[in-house]
Design brief:
The chain is an all-alpha fold. The chain is built from 9 helices and no strands. Helix 2 packs parallel to helix 5, helix 3 crosses helix 5 and helix 4 packs across helix 8. The longest helix has 31 residues. It is elongated, with a radius of gyration of 32 Å.
Amino acid sequence: MMTERADFDAGKYTGSFGGALGGPDAGPGQRWPDGAPWPDSPEPRHTPLPSRPGSGHDPETLERALRGTVFALAAVPVAAALWLVLWRLGLPAPVIALLAVPAAARLYTAGSNAGRASALSGRGARVAAGVTAVAVLASLAGRVVLEQAADLGVWPPGFLFEPAAGDLPAWLGLHPEVLADLGREAGWALLFGALGCGMVLRRQPAVSGRRRGPRK
């Protein structure tokens, strides 16, 4: 008696929910509410899988990369101006390279993603490092111009139109102390720039290519 009742209940529930749970009443074209086929169906699943939460990274197009590079280049004049101001005040100017890398990376991300929050790509990290190198070179060139203009007693903007402006190698040969200072500042800028790149890579795990596996 109990066996017959159990068989009756099993058949009743199977018949009632078979169309929804993939029972005998489910036809070969049965689908999930989102339109995807059943797991045992020969039809492929066309519904795209959701992206991994928190990744915030999608492939960049060339147009987006160029836009991000243009945004990142805005850090060059700002970094060079701050470098010269610190140098005039007698402060360690090469520390600007430490700040220029994350600033260029942030500008690149803002430009390439139209202001949307996203992880920095590998191309963006390389652009940030290149922009920092350009900023350091522009800062050193600006210092040479200011040094030579002060030595000749000429206002810096007007010095660019002076004939002596083209004789830079000869002037540096007469002032080896300036050349030595430039070498030291370039070395410190390289060190600070490397530290800045390390900071950016540490905050952006997507750049380093490392993927965090599931915790055991």
